[in-house]
Amino acid sequence: MTEPMNHQPHDDEIDLFDLIDDIRDKWYWLLGSLVVGVALAIAYAMTATPQYQTEATITEAAPSELLPFNQPALRNKLTLAASFKGTQGQGAGDEPVTLTDEAVFELDAESAFASARSVLRSASTRKAFYNFLLSQANDELLALISSPMLTDEQNLANFLKRFSFNDPGKNDSDTYLVIKFELHSSAELSRDVLNNYIAYALILHEERLKNEFERKVHAELELYQTWVDNFRRVYESEKARQIARLEEAAQIAASIGQKKPFYNTNDVVVSSEPPLYMMGEQALRQEAELLRKRSDSASEDIFVSGLSMLKNYISTLETIEVDWSNVELVELDQPALLPLKPVKPRKLLIVALGAVGGTMLGLLAALIAAASARHLRRNERNPLHF
After folding, report:
1. Is 165:180 a contact under the CB 8 Å cutoff?
2. Is residue 66 a contact partner of residue 107, using CB atoms and an 8 Å limit?
3. Does the predicted TM-score (pTM) go above 0.85?
4. How do the domains of the chain map onto residue ranges?
5. 92 touches 363 (CB < 8 A)
6. ω into residue 345 within 30 of 0, thus cis?
7. What's the average model confidence in pLDDT over 353-366?
8. 275 Cβ contact list (under 8 Å, min separation 6)
9. What value does the mean pLDDT take over residues 37-44?
10. CATH architecture of 53-334
11. Which is the most buried residue in 7, 189, 266, 334, by most CB within 10 A?
12. Helices of type H across the chain
């Protein structure tokens, strides 16, 4: 009778001490993997292209730096009140015409910083600066920002990613904008590109502000000139109406034989006004003739109520000049400096990661080698065991 084969039950539990013994037995796998991992990490750290980063800080300018822009003449509040008889299509009587305007030509430090911040952060500004760099004859820089292996759009996208911003935001009390720029291989070019970008963006910002200022002044001048023309038209209309009234009254006075005034100032009752024809035909026709002759005089504008104030303000706006060389819209708190060392690759971190990776791989290799050795020994003792 054949005795049944004596099979030992398999133990599926993992014994920690067995694993330690396996690693100790196959220690050369661990050591070899560690050496290889560290060597590869060192090789990568030494051969990788260094990447340099520099940064600059922009903050608000002092209020005194904006004084050449914020001139008193730019912050005038103009209020005009003119009275005409029967103006604006109304009937006889006094109808006041009041015009009020407040010219807003004031720029505080916070607004100037917010405006510059938007220009510095704008992707369109960086695109324009990138095209400006491409137009420069700097082969070393062009090789770093433009690759012939990539399309123009891809090169531009890579350039835009080199910028990063630490932005306080619109509602933050912090008024410092930090701009960072990264570039491969050259610390000097990294510094120079960022400084040139800030100068480029601030010049663009100043040009936009100049254009906006000129548009506002031009708009104010057009508005006041429109008022001047309207005042003159109202005056001319009222003058023609007054001449017609005088001629009509003169005809009435002539029809009743009233050549001279019928009354003097002592005869006039307070708050009452006698009929116009009582002034007499001679006086009425003489006044009408003087009104007609005013159009031949360059000084007729003095008879237009409120016009002299408008003309004075127009003259002030036309002579306004801003010395932009003395205006500082923002302050460059910290320009980009030459980096002391590259930000990438981080050699110590890479070597440490290589050591960790080699150790993990060595442990796995040692355990697999130990398991393989046990499997071979078991097959040698029991060749029929599958």
Report:
1. yes
2. yes
3. no
4. 26-48+351-372, 53-334
5. no
6. yes
7. 86
8. 249
9. 82
10. 2-Layer Sandwich (3.30)
11. 189
12. 16-25, 27-47, 109-121, 123-134, 139-145, 152-161, 187-255, 281-293, 307-318, 347-381
